[in-house]
Each structure stands twice: as C-alpha cells, then as structure tokens.
Amino acid sequence: MALVNYRDVLRAAKQLTKEKQAELAVTIFRDAKKAADKPTAQEITITPFFGLSQTELNVLSHAMLASEHQTRLEFLLGQNREGKLTIQEEKELDDLLAEIDQLALLKAKADYTLSLFPKNH
User: How many CB atoms sit inside 10 A of residue 46's CB?
Assistant: First the structure.
C-alpha cells in the first residue's frame, strides 16, 4: 500500500501496536532532528582565501595532482577494479583519494575567491 499523504500515514500508524507507535515516533523525531541539524545549501558559507593575489589564486585553481601520484592512482584503481589490492594498497588508494578531494576543495575555494574580485572589462 502506497502512503501518499499525512492522513494515510496516520491511519497506518494507528494500526500499529502502542509499542510500535512509540518506536515509530522516536524514529521520526530522531530523523527530524538529524535533518534539522544539517545545514541547508543556503546556510553553508564559504570563507574566501585572504592574502592571495589573483595570480596565486589562478595558479591554485588550475592545480593538478602530481604526475607520479596520477600514475600511481591509475595503477591502484586498475588493481582495485580487478580485486587485486593488498591492504596496504587499499590504504594508499584511500589516502590518494582523500588528497584529490582536498585538492578539489582548495581549487573550488580559489575559484570562489576569484569570483569576488571585480571583473576587468
């Protein structure tokens, strides 16, 4: 049975035992609190880089993973696809992926900071 509105949900909940109703209520409140604690897209603020020139920000926004890291990443990803990673290689892959995530965040922050500079026409 598809529950499509509030009344259907209440009707279905009333058919539960009191114990299950309490369990449902606790779950709903816990999930609602988790959702309320998460910032919305409008609440997330990005702090720009301070003290960097536009040239420095441009360099950072175009930064790339070092070529030896890129080569190693490609190898590890291939090993992973084939299910041949050792535990040490799994950790190395995780570390490289974390490094890539950090680089992507730095590049995005540099791009954001650049967007705050007046446009020269």
Answer: 9
Residues 59, 22 within the same domain: no
The answer as to whether 121 is a domain residue is: no
What's this model's pTM, rounded to 2 decimal places?
Answer: 0.60
Residue 43 lies in a domain: no
Residue 88 DSSP SS3 = helix
Query: Length of the chain, please?
Result: 121
Place of tokens 């995005």: 108
The structural domain count of the chain equals 2
User: 41-100, pLDDT tens digit by residue?
Assistant: 666 677 898 899 999 999 999 999 999 999 999 999 999 999 999 999 999 999 999 999
The residues near 58 (Cβ < 8 Å, ≥ 6 apart) are: 110, 114
